[in-house]
Specification:
Layout (H helix, E strand, L loop, with lengths): L1 E8 L5 H10 L4 E5 L5 H6 L1 H19 L13 H25 L3 E11 L9 E7 L5 E11 L3 E3 L12 E2 L1 H4 L8 E5 L3 H12 L3 E5 L11 H13 L3 E3 L4 E7 L2 E6 L4 E4 L1 E4 L3 E3 L6 H4 L22 E3 L10 H15 L12 E4 L5 E5 L12 E7 L4 H5 L5 E8 L5 E8 L2 H13 L4 H6 L10 H8 L16
Parallel strand pairs: 1-2, 1-5, 2-3, 5-16, 7-14, 8-9, 8-14, 9-10
Antiparallel strand pairs: 3-4, 4-5, 6-15, 11-12, 12-13, 17-18, 18-21, 19-20, 20-21
Bound molecules: 1,4-dihydronicotinamide adenine dinucleotide.
The site of 1,4-dihydronicotinamide adenine dinucleotide (NAI) has 25 residues, from helix 6 and strand 17.
């Protein structure tokens, strides 16, 4: 039986990064992936959607034009766009494979089942069974440590009769070869809003049906409302507080039946109501891995489970389901296995939502439990007051920053506007170093750039933004 220092289960951004990092740390590593390397992020999530997003954005500027340009005629072929998306995906997936090979990581293509846990005290390695995809044969490998990084899949509800043809999930929508005439999107969360924005630009008639009273309900309220306004101004129909009773194939594609008795027909129905964990078939219960109340794998600050030597990372553990959080988790597990005691810290964890313009957030936002006992100030700066934004004809949007009253530390930021995720990256770096209002102010920002919005929003939290009129400051 082959013996490894580490066996990583799952080849997504948590797993493959953990494998690459562990190899850099001098470990003998195996990685088991049942599908394609790169996981949801590269194959069915972040990357393919961003190809469609950037094409939709380009189309939007062709349609609406920019000052001084009159575009009389343009054409596009959606199938070519999908082919380009596939090219990007296969380049990146191939790149991951090459990196793993170059670092001598053994890649197994198949399904993993943990037969026994490692016993650190007696130095007994774990045994993992792999049912290989190519010939269905079963092999066993041994590993001193296991990193579970099996991710998540779209949530399904039996009454929604997902047939993967007319009633689809985010997995299938990325591969449809033509733009549907109309699409009903169930769930106005991150995935629902991103696809609503994309398909609306490609001229589908889009309706979103959301159970809760607002879209993007976990985001800052102002951001949620602003996004609602932008999406409806583009003629996307949004219905909130709506209960879907049943979805079935029929009519021109599928019919969504609401609890009120109303039926909505569409060529495609996208179900984007959250994601389920891929932990069911690993044998976790049999070896005694503890789960939390949400069914996620319980881990400590080192991403180690209750069983010494078994680690878990990414969507299967606590925290938001984000690719970069998963990769961070992978590095934390890998470093701890290598003997460096590093504790994870999500206090400066950023995330982005790619509607047009995009949303970016990091750290705490108004309404969060973490702010209950904190005295904080809010600063704001608008894109309309930034020279570069006007030059780019991107005057829609704003950045909002929270600073702690007592220390001046930046504790969170959220905003919507052109390149907002990049602006939030700067704030993330400041927060990583526990930076304050002064740090943002005295960091020199190149002019003209959108990044100048950052110090202005931060300074506005104390009423001192340079390019903003604040009547409170100059009362006679
Ligand atoms: P989500 O949790 O963001 O949104 C699901 C929405 O569906 C919620 O608003 C919920 O209230 C609604 N819903 C639930 N049941 C419903 C029902 N029966 N009828 C109508 N509405 C219903 O989940 P989503 O959008 O599926 O995304 C999954 C995960 O993927 C998220 O955790 C997100 O963080 C991640 N993701 C991240 C992206 C990014 O970083 N840009 C992009 C896409 C996804």
């Amino acid at each position: 039986m082959d013996n490894f220092d580490i066996c990583v289960i799952g080849g997504g951004p948590a797993g493959y990064v953990a494998a690459l990092k562990s190899a850099l740390n001098g470990m003998k590593v195996a990685i088991i992936e049942k599908d394609k390397l790169g996981g949801t992020c590269l194959n069915r999530g972040c990357i393919p959607t961003k190809v469609l997003y950037s094409k939709a954005k380009f189309l939007s500027s062709l349609k609406s034009g920019v000052s001084g340009f009159h575009i009389n005629k343009y054409n596009y072929n959606y199938e070519d766009i999908i082919n380009y998306k596939d090219e990007v995906v296969s380049t990146l997936v191939g790149g991951v494979g090459k990196l793993l090979k170059a670092r001598n990581v053994n890649v197994f293509n198949g399904n993993a089942f943990i037969i026994s846990a490692p016993v650190k005290k007696n130095n007994i390695a774990a045994v993992i069974k792999i049912k290989e995809n190519n010939d269905n044969s079963e092999i066993e490998i041994a590993a001193s440590n296991i990193i579970i990084a099996t991710g998540s899949s779209p949530a399904m509800i039996p009454a929604f009769h997902i047939d993967h043809a007319h009633i689809i999930t985010s997995d299938e929508i990325l591969n449809i070869k033509s733009v549907p005439e109309d699409i009903a999107i169930i769930g106005a969360g991150v995935i629902g809003c991103e696809f609503a924005n994309i398909f609306n630009e490609f001229n589908s008639k889009v309706i979103m049906l959301e159970l809760l009273p607002s879209i993007l309900s976990t985001e800052d309220k102002e951001i949620s409302k602003f996004t609602h306004k932008i999406l409806t101004s583009k003629n996307i129909e949004i219905r909130t507080s709506v209960e879907v009773a049943d979805i079935s194939a029929g009519g021109r594609g599928a019919v969504v039946s609401l609890k009120t008795g109303e039926n909505i027909e569409a060529e495609k129905v996208l179900v984007s109501i959250g994601r389920n964990l891929n932990t069911g078939s690993l044998g976790l219960k049999e070896i005694g891995v503890e789960l939390d109340v949400k069914g996620k794998i319980k881990t400590d600050a080192h991403n180690e489970t209750n069983i010494p030597g078994i680690y878990a990372c990414g969507d299967v553990i606590d925290g938001p389901m984000l690719a970069h959080k998963a990769s961070y988790d992978g590095v934390i597990a890998s470093e701890n296995i290598a003997g460096r005691k590093i504790e994870k810290n999500y206090s400066a964890l950023p995330w982005s939502i790619y509607v047009s313009p995009p949303i970016g957030t990091v750290g705490l936002k108004e309404g969060d439990k973490g702010l209950e006992n904190v005295k904080y100030r809010v600063g704001r700066f608008s894109y309309a007051a930034n020279g570069m934004a006007l030059a780019m004809e991107e005057k829609e949007g704003f950045l909002k920053v929270l600073t702690e009253e007592e220390t001046g530390r930046i504790i969170g930021a959220t905003g919507i506007g052109a390149d907002m995720p990049e602006l939030v990256a700067e704030i993330t770096a400041i927060m990583h170093f526990n930076g304050t209002i002064n740090d943002a102010e005295f960091t020199i920002h190149s002019h003209p750039t959108l990044s100048e919005i950052v110090p202005e929003a931060v300074l506005d939290s104390i009423g001192e933004a340079i390019h903003k009129y604040n009547p409170r400051m100059f009362k006679k």
